Amino acid sequence: MQQFPELVPSFIDKDEFERDFQTRAEAEELIMLAEDALRKLTDMKTMLDYDNYQDVLAFYRSVRYSASEKIGNAVAVYNDMKQFFPRTGLRQNRNVGKVIQEKSIYSFQAISGSTLDMAFIFYPPQILRLPGSLLF
Fold this sequence. Notes:
46% of the residues lie in helices and 6% in strands.
């Protein structure tokens, strides 16, 4: 509109248009900052979920071992926890490009043949519902 002011209809307020255009640009910048912050928070939460899951899995393995040795309350705790860690079967052959499943954690083997365990982790939703008394 600035390049061809003679073509702008008289009912358009040029000053209001400029204010609206500037406000729109500022809003777009804020949206981009908010989306970036959301992405960073989501990434952080994913890594924290992974760390928490690994810690709870280590605790579960310790409880399972203690239960097999009949140590203290380990049998009762193990019986409460085992519902959250169902066995999903034996590990399948690691063919390149195949998704495999082992104990509710999925891994993806890349074309190069290297395993990218941390890149493609999916957590069983049950782990998020562990009773507080079972956590250490």
